[in-house]
Amino acid sequence: MNNNEQAEQHHEQRQEFRLNNQLTVIIELDSEADCEPTLVVSNSLDISANGIRVIAPHAVPTDNILRCCIRDAESDRQFLVVTEVKWCRPYNTGGDYLIGLSLFDSEGTDIVEWKEFIAQACAQQGE
Asked: In percent, how much of the chain has pLDDT > 90?
């Protein structure tokens, strides 16, 4: 089974409805104490209230809790959230990586607004 087939098999195991919205997801990697954080700019393949699947040009270590900024250029909105990197694997021969992010319900983030955004998008798709 190749990587794309594994990703599709993983996709089939999901419990919640996913939208195929194309959003920019900026992942903030931890850095040294005195240095600026490293930012990995990625694009979403699909999104849900509790997770995002993205394609990024760099691998991201799994089992890390990281801050992310999700930007929707269409509505000119952005959401600051906390995520856990559940998995990361090569996506294609171009050097990209497919990354699964799980969103946390954290105080001081935009998780409530994110879930409202997803609910609205689901309602619009159902029209």
From this structure: 54
Residue 103: burial class (beta carbons within 10 Å; 0-12, 13-18, 19+): buried
Strands 51-56 and 77-90: unpaired
Average pLDDT over residues 89-106: 91
Q: Which domain holds residue 12?
A: 3-126
Residue 111 scores a pLDDT above 90: yes
Please tell me the pTM assigned to this model.
0.81
What CATH number has the domain bearing residue 80? 2.40.10.220
Overall domain count for the chain: 1
Q: State whether the Cα torsion 74-60-53-89 is positive or negative.
A: positive
